Amino acid sequence: MAIHDRSKMERNSILRVRLRMLIMLACFATIKATEADISCLRSIKESLEDPSHIFSSWDFNYMYEGFICTFAGVECWHDDNIVISIHLAGKKLRGSFPVGIKNCTNMATLDLSSNYISGPIPSDLGDGLDFIVDLNLSNNSLSGPIPRSIVNWRYINVLRLDNNNLTGQIPSDLTALDRIKVFNVTNNRLSGPVPIFSNGDFSAESYGNNLELCGGPLKACKDDNKHDDEGFFLSGYANNSGLCGGPLKSCKNEDDDDLFLSGFEVGFPLFTILNRG
Q: Does Signal appear among the keywords (predicted)?
């Protein structure tokens, strides 16, 4: 009986140790998430000018449980210091895109639309924000290319980049975003073919007023390969001023022969008819 009780006590002791370890791991994960989210929010505050004083509530001097969840425009998951959304649309924010935003790794919604944020979107933005569902950066002054890394956003439903100064091509890899429902890049300076999304193409309105976008619902893209082949073929005859014919300028004799043949084709039948008369 004593042996049985001792065995039971040992099992209970092991269970208590495991439970403590699980609690410690959960607390550690929460602390790490909090540190990352604090870094994210600091980056936003430090990168952007705030004439509307929206950041006056963003006080990092007094850190207590859930303190970042009291910040204006920030929403947390059950006050657990885990940021799930940031809404700062139309706050007259000005400055470069905050590079630390990617540290809000659990964020599902980010809305920085209708501000004066400028400069490029960080190329590694897609290496964070693993759970982003809705991203709205429209109506700013963002420039440079659309980061290819955003192909990592497996859960993205809404991606709005319209009304900026973005340049270059739309990354073809975006076709892998099979959950996307809204995609808008109107009023930028983008060029090249539009991606063909696996869940259906978007209308021409999603791509309007760009530099030279083509394909999909827009005009067909030119066969650039054909022109490249012709250019390569012509280059084989370069720096030979006396060459003519074929893909080069017409030879003088060819023109004369063509003229002679054309005259013969018309004149001979006419001569035959006149002689019959």
A: yes
Closest Cα partner for 109 from 98, 101, 118, 117? Answer: 101
CA–CA dist 52, 193 (Å, integer) = 40
pTM, two decimals, is 0.70
The CATH code of domain 2-229 reads 3.80.10.10
Query: Domain segments of the chain: what residues?
Result: 2-229, 230-276
Q: Could you tell me which residues come within 8 angstroms of residue 223 by beta carbon, excluding any fewer than 6 positions away? A: none
Say how many C-beta atoms besides its own lie within 10 A of residue 132's C-beta: 26
pLDDT in tens, 143-184: 999 999 999 999 999 999 999 999 999 999 999 999 999 999
Instruction: Tell me the pairing of strands 134-136 and 109-111.
Output: parallel
